[in-house]
Amino acid sequence: MIHQRKDYPDIISYNRFVEIMQFALVPLTLCTIKARFGKCSGISFIDSTPLEVCNNHRIHSHLVFSEYVKTGKSSMGWFYGFKLHLVINGEGEILSFCLTSSNTDDRNEAVMDSLMKEIFGKLFADRGYISQKLFEKLLKKDIALVTRANKNMKNKLMDLYDRLMLRKCAVIESVNDSLKNICDIEHSRHRSVTNFLVNLISVLTAYSFVLKKPSVFSDSNMQEGFLFLLD
Question: Using only C-alpha atoms, what is the Rg of the chain?
């Protein structure tokens, strides 16, 4: 930095900044989870999104994450990296998250146990979370998993409120889009695993300060209408 140097006489260099980033990981994580995450309101959405660490053409030459990631497949195709699992509320606030390798099933028991610690009420998800075992396990924790039915499944009557909320599942995809395209959570310039984690937590923290988050309720009238259906 050559501009405004006199205003910041003790500023460190970029290389030094990258070196000491790792020491902020633990306090930043605790601060984010305890103070910056939202609160469950009984309406939650869950989904996962891929975090590529390099282009597929450079998989064999990429060494930074070779011990931690595998090749996985998402709805957009094959990728090499991690998978970020998110749970949000109706206001677009992050409730919990979990980072896994790309080949981890969304319905993995350890992942779901980690994500569901503070969740209650109804949990809306896409067809990737369809599992009778998972449904029964969550039901014991007072969590009702609501998903669309596959084509080969018998049609069952669904509450009107649940049907309307399933149409709003795209809100969590909007959150993932904000994390990637606005907050830059995904890029291929990481040179260490620790700095990757610091960047991940920093982005989640930065997102918590966004004033206008993707929301299920675009206005107060819509929210009152949903609450009326719920009653």
Answer: 20
- Which residues, including other chains, have CB under 8 Å from residue 92's CB and lie 6 or more apart? 171, 174, 175, 213, 214, 215, 216
- The pLDDT confidence band at residue 46, using thresholds 50, 70 and 90, is very high
Contacts of 33 (CB under 8 A, 6+ apart): none
Residue 125 and residue 47 in contact, taking contact as beta carbons nearer than 8 Å: yes
Q: Any idea which residue has 């609450």 for tokens?
A: 227
Candidates 18, 11, 16; CA nearest to 189 is 18
- pLDDT of amino acid 157: 66
* pLDDT, tens only, 178-209: 999 999 999 888 888 999 999 999 999 999 99
100-116 average pLDDT score? 94
Do residues 101 and 72 make contact, with C-beta atoms less than 8 angstroms apart? yes
**Nearest-CA neighbor of 95 among 69, 121, 75, 68?**
121
- Distant-in-sequence, close-in-space partners of 85: CB < 8 Å, separation ≥ 6: 46, 47, 48, 97, 98, 99, 100, 106, 111, 115
